């Protein structure tokens, strides 16, 4: 009720009572009886008491209105104060954004130092190991099959069937991927338990063991020893594919993270090329030389054991996971060759604050988290786009693929070496492009080019089969080499790198473990299934891969965000505020 309403009500009451009193007084003046006078006076007294009560009630209501007005004034003062605080907060946010922008600019100015180069070289020896053991089984296929035939005949006194020898060789190829699945899935646990550097150092024990088993296979006259060696070296390579990209992404400066992440794939391609060159008949691709060829896998493991102990542990692991700030500062000073590491520390602290709710996240929690589901799906599909692109069909069976297209055995082996050389060159070319063009753009170019040339490979097979045109064999070789070029540009390196970039420190090990497991599972499916696919589809062998490439291109275009020059905190914010795009 307003103050005006109260005044109006009181005036009305007073008017009514005044009229009543006037009426009573008139009655008294006309009358002369004592009794009537007494009654009239009593009524007047009652009226006056009611009037007094009304006045008191009005005073109470006026007091309440005054209190309400004081409260309203206080609230207005509070609103004004809140408004001033919001203005101050807005100014603070503006200053914070400006400070963050300046910090990011300083981070983008960081360069490549000698010690950072050394640490990356020591780490990527693990990926060189992976590349070497992926390609090493390809060239000596005939020599290994001859060894298996001899062992079988000595044991059982009869010749082994061609079908069974093919199955045994497929086991030797694919058991490597089974070991890789186990190692890849264990990578997250190992990274958290022993650290990135510590996990890599321990992993070399497996590398040395697997290489020794493969190297002494012929001496022991047991192809089971070859299978065991391939399995153990597979576990070693699976752990490497999880730990190495994680370590490099965490020690690399913001502006070099893409280019240095591509060094992972460069090491893989160098390992592939090395295995192909050493595997030719003139060097180690002989009946006596192939165990040495497989046993040389010991070299990257020993070299990493010698070089890596000097390198620092990942500063992010030290600061965010272990909360050892001084150790993290020491590591950063060595990696950046500077005492000015505050920007890096601040950036890590910002990442830590952004992912507080996700720290020390388990694999199950990662899968169930709504916030992390989108980056996890992207990471998995990116890994599948690498394996189901058809590239491993080229790696594992390139020599026989070229021979079936009409090349001689010797020409086919040199064409396979050409694949390795082109992979190395194109990976080198993609290093500067990674931080200029961006991950998403290069991945789209890579998948698109692979799709086009997978169609050309199928066409060349079909025309050669039906028209028997000799030069078509060269078209299939050129198409295959172009297919490899586009793989090196995008799908070769980006899936390893982007999975580490999409996640903050807490969920990163579990995410890498899942992604690497998926990669190795797909690797195994292609390795074990491609010979059957080749038999069933013949000249249409690459058609399923063309379909997959089209699907992966659409997914990348629609769902994958650009992570170029973004801090881990900014990438995490993309998925918190939307779907990443």
From TrEMBL:
One of its GO terms (cellular component) is membrane. InterPro entries: GLUT (IPR045263), MFS_dom (IPR020846), MFS_sugar_transport-like (IPR005828), MFS_trans_sf (IPR036259), Sugar/inositol_transpt (IPR003663), Sugar_transporter_CS (IPR005829). The keyword Cell membrane does not apply. It is a multi-pass membrane protein. Keywords: Coiled coil, Glycoprotein, Membrane, Transmembrane, Transmembrane helix, Transport. It comes from the Eukaryota. Residues 119-564 form the Major facilitator superfamily (MFS) profile domain. The chain crosses the membrane at residues 112-132, 168-191, 198-216, 228-248, 260-278, 290-310, 414-433, 445-465, 471-490, 511-533, 539-557. This is MFS domain-containing protein. It comes from Anopheles coluzzii. The lineage of its organism: Eukaryota, Metazoa, Ecdysozoa, Arthropoda, Hexapoda.
């Amino acid at each position: 009720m307003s103050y005006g309403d109260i005044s109006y009500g009181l005036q009305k009451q007073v008017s009514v009572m005044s009229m009543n009193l006037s009426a009573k007084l008139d009655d008294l003046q006309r009358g002369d009886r004592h009794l009537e006078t007494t009654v009239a006076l009593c009524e007047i007294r009652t009226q006056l008491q009611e009037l007094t009560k009304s006045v008191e009630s009005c005073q109470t209501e006026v007091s309440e209105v005054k209190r309400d007005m004081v409260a309203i004034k206080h609230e207005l003062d509070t609103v004004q104060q809140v408004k001033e605080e919001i203005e101050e907060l807005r100014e603070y946010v503006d200053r914070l954004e400006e400070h963050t922008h300046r910090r990011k600019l300083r981070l983008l100015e960081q360069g490549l130092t000698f010690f950072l180069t050394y640490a990356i070289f020591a780490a990527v020896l693990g990926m060189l190991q992976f590349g070497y053991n992926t390609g090493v089984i390809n060239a000596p296929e005939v020599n290994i099959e001859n060894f298996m035939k001899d062992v079988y005949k000595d044991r059982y006194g009869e010749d082994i069937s061609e079908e069974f020898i093919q199955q045994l060789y497929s086991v030797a190829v694919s058991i490597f991927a089974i070991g890789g699945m186990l190692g890849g899935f264990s990578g997250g646990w190992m990274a958290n338990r022993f650290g990135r550097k510590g996990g890599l150092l321990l992993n070399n024990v497996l590398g040395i063991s697997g290489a020794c088993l493969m190297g002494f296979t012929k001496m022991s006259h047991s192809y089971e020893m070859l299978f065991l060696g391939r399995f153990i070296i597979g576990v070693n390579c699976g752990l490497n594919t999880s730990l190495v990209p994680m370590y490099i992404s965490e020690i690399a400066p913001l502006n070099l993270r893409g280019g240095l992440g591509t060094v992972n794939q460069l090491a893989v391609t160098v390992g592939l090329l090395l295995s192909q060159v050493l595997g030719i008949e003139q060097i180690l691709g002989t009946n006596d030389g192939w165990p040495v060829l497989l046993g040389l896998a010991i070299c990257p493991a020993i070299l990493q054991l010698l070089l890596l102990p000097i390198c620092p542990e990942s500063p992010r692991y030290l600061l965010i996971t272990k909360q050892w700030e001084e150790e993290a500062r020491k590591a950063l000073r060595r990696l950046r060759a500077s005492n000015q590491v505050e920007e890096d520390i601040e950036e890590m602290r910002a990442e830590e604050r952004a992912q507080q709710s996700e720290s020390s996240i388990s694999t199950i929690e990662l899968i169930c988290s709504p916030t992390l589901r989108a980056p996890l799906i992207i990471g998995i599909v990116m890994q599948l786009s690498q394996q189901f692109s058809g590239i491993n069909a080229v790696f594992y069976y390139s020599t026989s693929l070229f021979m079936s297209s009409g090349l001689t055995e010797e020409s086919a082996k040199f064409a396979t070496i050409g694949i390795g050389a082109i992979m190395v060159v194109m990976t080198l070319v993609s290093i500067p492009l990674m931080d200029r063009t961006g991950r998403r753009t290069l991945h789209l170019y890579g998948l698109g080019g692979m799709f086009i040339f997978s169609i050309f490979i199928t066409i060349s097979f079909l025309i050669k089969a039906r028209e028997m045109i000799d030069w078509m064999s060269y078209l299939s070789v050129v198409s295959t080499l172009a297919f490899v070029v586009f793989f090196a540009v995008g799908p070769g390196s980006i899936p390893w790198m982007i999975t580490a970039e999409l996640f903050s420190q807490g969920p990163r090990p579990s995410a890498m473990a899942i992604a690497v497991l998926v990669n190795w599972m797909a690797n195994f499916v292609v390795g074990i299934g491609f010979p059957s696919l080749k038999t069933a589809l013949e000249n249409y062998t690459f058609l399923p891969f063309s379909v997959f490439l089209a699907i992966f291109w659409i997914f990348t275009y629609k769902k994958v965000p650009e992570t170029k020059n973004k801090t881990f905190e900014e990438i995490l914010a993309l998925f918190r505020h939307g779907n990443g795009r």
